[in-house]
Design brief:
Elements (H helix, E strand, L loop, with lengths): L14 H5 L4 E4 L3 H11 L8 E4 L5 H7 L7 E7 L20 E6 L5 H13 L3 E4 L2 H30 L4 H5 L2 H6 L7 H10 L1 H24 L2 H18 L2
Parallel strand pairs: 1-2, 2-3, 4-5
Antiparallel strand pairs: 3-4
Helix pairs in contact: 2-3, 5-9
Length: 243
């Protein structure tokens, strides 16, 4: 399909043929597939080839990258953009525009390789920045992986109610649709993310549970002034982030 639509010049499903003579190899597959591909690619790449991944978690991947043969230039990366749908039909030429593009170089990554990574990110319209893998995994657990889990729990809650009162689905409209969007994400991709970032994801869930408990106590207390102040602060924070 990609060939027929002239989206690519050459296509192959053979890994060896696909990377033969390549100056740059980019892995854009689920995290655990990337881990396997790193091992498979090690003997196939040319000297000084830039091997870059776009996985959603970085610590485990960059740790594996550190074990690659010395002739390979590894560079972890994660463009902070995406959709809950995938495949060629979901392609969007503006997907990377003005979005952060995380780069997680290793100590062995050369300045030239890192510069090339910056250039590739900028060519896509994204905004490259360097982030430590540990910090990256902790933060994306909060602003990416946690939202997915929350939408799953939201759908699960409504689904449970629907077992006794199916009208809940008839009433569900824009608010539920927009809030639950991420629950429709590719399960294989999300399973790989949660498996390779288990600790930070669990920590994010616990922090969220504490905030949810605080809101529940405010509602239970009937302290309208305190509840209003809390909601107003959070509303202002959200508006300031995405204007």
């Amino acid at each position: 399909m990609a060939l027929a639509r002239e989206l690519i010049d050459v296509g192959t499903s053979d890994l060896s043929n696909g990377v033969s003579g390549a100056d740059v190899v980019v892995l854009a597959t689920p995290a655990r597939v990337i881990l396997r591909q790193l091992e498979e690619l090690a003997p196939l790449l040319e000297p000084d080839c830039l091997l870059m991944d776009l996985g959603s978690t970085k610590l485990e991947i960059t740790t594996h990258m550190g074990r690659l043969p010395e002739h390979i230039q590894p560079l972890g990366a994660h463009p902070m953009c995406g959709k809950e749908i995938s495949g060629i039909e979901a392609a969007d030429p503006d997907l990377f525009q003005h979005n952060p593009f995380v780069l997680t170089p290793l100590s062995r990554t050369s300045a030239a390789a890192l510069q090339l990574g910056f250039a590739l990110a900028e060519a896509s319209g994204a905004l490259p920045l360097i982030v430590d893998p540990v910090q990256h995994d902790r933060l994306v657990a909060l602003i990416s992986h946690l939202p997915y889990l929350l939408t799953c729990s939201l759908v699960a809650t409504a689904r449970s109610e629907a077992a006794s009162d199916p009208m809940v689905w008839e009433l569900a409209s824009s608010g539920f649709r927009d809030t639950s969007r991420l629950a429709a994400s590719d399960v294989t991709m999300m399973l790989d993310i949660l498996t390779t970032n288990r600790g930070p994801a669990l920590d994010a869930l616990r922090k969220y549970q504490a905030q949810l408990d605080s809101l529940a106590k405010l509602i239970e207390s009937g302290d309208e002034d305190c509840l209003r102040d809390t909601l107003s602060i959070l509303s202002a924070c959200r508006r300031s982030l995405f204007q």
